[in-house]
Design goal:
Number of helices: 3
Structural class: mainly alpha
Strand content: under 5%
Largest sheet: none
Radius of gyration: 25 Å
Low-confidence stretches: none
Helix content: 40-55%
Shape: elongated
Distance between the termini: 44 Å
Length: about 90
């Protein structure tokens, strides 16, 4: 497929442009955005900063305590934490 596409670069470029341009009239028919507006994804972020020099293991312990507190909130199904990712 790749060798065929490389031999017919002009045709591939023309078809690509035609596909991109076809989204304009299709939007008029569908009348729907790709991403819903005002969608509540039901998630929130918590940032935690520890004193300079805190070890990764110490930060992991702090994060585990915070995760335990967050899990007590009704409706929480998942928690994702990352320690040591700051700049």
């Amino acid at each position: 497929m790749l060798s065929l596409a490389l031999r017919h670069r002009g045709a591939v470029a023309l078809v690509s442009v035609a596909v991109m341009l076809s989204t304009i009239p299709l939007y008029g028919v569908i009348r729907q955005d790709y991403l819903p507006a005002n969608a509540d994804e039901g998630e929130f972020n918590v940032s935690v900063a520890a004193p300079q020099g805190t070890s990764l293991a110490g930060m992991d312990g702090i994060m585990n305590d915070i995760i335990a507190d967050i899990r007590t909130v009704p409706g929480v199904r998942m928690v994702l934490s990352t320690a040591g990712a700051g700049g």
